[in-house]
Design a protein that fits this description.
Family: Belongs to the shikimate dehydrogenase family.
Largest sheet: 6 strands, mixed
Radius of gyration: 19 Å
Bound molecules: 2'-monophosphoadenosine-5'-diphosphate
Number of helices: 10
Order of helices and strands: EHEHEHEHEEHEHEHEEEHEHH
Catalytic activity: shikimate + NADP(+) = 3-dehydroshikimate + NADPH + H(+)
Enzyme class: oxidoreductase
Function: Involved in the biosynthesis of the chorismate, which leads to the biosynthesis of aromatic amino acids. Catalyzes the reversible NADPH linked reduction of 3-dehydroshikimate (DHSA) to yield shikimate (SA).
Shape: globular
InterPro entries: Aminoacid_DH-like_N_sf, NAD(P)-bd_dom_sf, SDH_C, Shikimate_DH, Shikimate_DH-bd_N, Shikimate_DH_fam, Shikm_DH/Glu-tRNA_Rdtase
Structural class: alpha/beta
Oligomer: single chain
Length: 277
């Protein structure tokens, strides 16, 4: 009689000890009574391909990929989804039974599903979005927002050329705004998204003036440590609808867990609590 193998998954990056993904996936494995493990793995760029190619034989059904390997992994994967190609990065690998390594990016859907769950009245067609930042996270947010039909994305970044490059790539619905004038976007914006690392524990605060913000505007921060950033606290005081970044992290994990373990997990208060443990 052949024994069923215990399915393994994990997350690969460096540094990796801060990752919340192990708590999230282990919580879902337990909730669904699945005998499996989710393991954080510290792997540098030189060993990335060798490690990844060895994992399927060791019983891994897939892994998440995080900083700094999210772009590089596209060269290693055998198949890349359209959305990962568009974003230019992958966060999820699926090790297929035929031996092929399939790369996907679930950050964009995670972003949108977090807003749908936590700001149920959100209508992306209501007006322009104001986006702060033009890094990897911004790419995932832009591709997801364009798909929702948002009429315009105003984008402001300290390094203007990075915002210009995104406009060239993603097209006419993007409008570049000078970083020193980022505050001017607030009045027109139906939603505001911080994709920079500003406001994160250990980073400088986000200093963009918010006084133009209108009541009811949706303000969301991708930063989740702290959960309530200065941006969210100020926006809340101004009567805005605020959504923190932890939900995006939880929602981006859902499609991966479903593909690896065959069950679609819920994102509920117990999942949030597990991630914060
Ligand atoms: P990620 O993949 O998380 O988006 P990234 O590609 O390094 O990471 O992008 C980080 C974002 O935060 C960028 O928009 C960056 O602005 P620059 O393109 O000018 O570097 C922004 N950022 C980081 N530190 C910043 C700071 N001190 N002031 C303004 N913007 C900052």
């Amino acid at each position: 009689m052949t024994e069923t193998r215990i399915p393994l998954a994990g997350v690969i990056g460096t540094p990796i000890s801060h990752s919340k993904s192990p708590q999230i996936h282990m919580h879902w494995l337990k909730t669904h009574g699945i005998k499996g493990y989710y393991i954080p793995m510290e792997v540098g760029a030189d060993d990335l391909e060798t490690v990844i190619r060895s994992l399927p034989k060791a019983g891994f059904v897939g892994v998440n990929i995080t900083v700094p390997h999210k772009e590089k992994i596209l060269e290693i994967a055998d198949l890349v989804t359209d959305r990962a190609t568009l974003i230019g990065a992958a966060n999820t690998l699926i090790f297929r039974k035929d031996g092929k390594i399939h790369a996907d990016n679930t950050d964009g859907v995670g972003f949108v599903r977090n807003l749908r769950q936590n700001a149920p009245g959100w209508n992306p067609l209501a007006g322009p979005a104001a986006l702060l930042g033009a890094g990897g996270a911004a790419r995932a947010v832009i591709s997801a927002l364009l798909e929702t039909g948002v009429p315009e994305i105003m984008i402001s970044n300290r390094t203007r050329v990075r915002a210009e490059a995104l406009k060239t790539e993603f097209g006419k619905r993007l409008v570049v705004v000078e970083w020193v004038q980022a505050g001017n976007m607030m009045e027109e914006a139906a939603m505001v998204v911080n994709t920079t690392s500003l406001g994160m524990i250990g980073k400088p605060p986000l200093r963009v003036p918010l006084d133009g913000l209108r009541k009811g505007t949706l303000v969301t921060d991708l930063v989740y440590a702290p959960l309530k950033t200065k941006l969210l606290a100020e926006a809340e005081d101004m009567g805005c609808v605020t959504v923190d970044g932890l939900g995006m992290l939880l929602h981006q994990a859902v499609p991966a867990f479903e593909r690896w373990f065959g069950v679609r997990p819920d994102v509920d208060s117990a999942t949030r609590a597990a991630a914060l443990r």
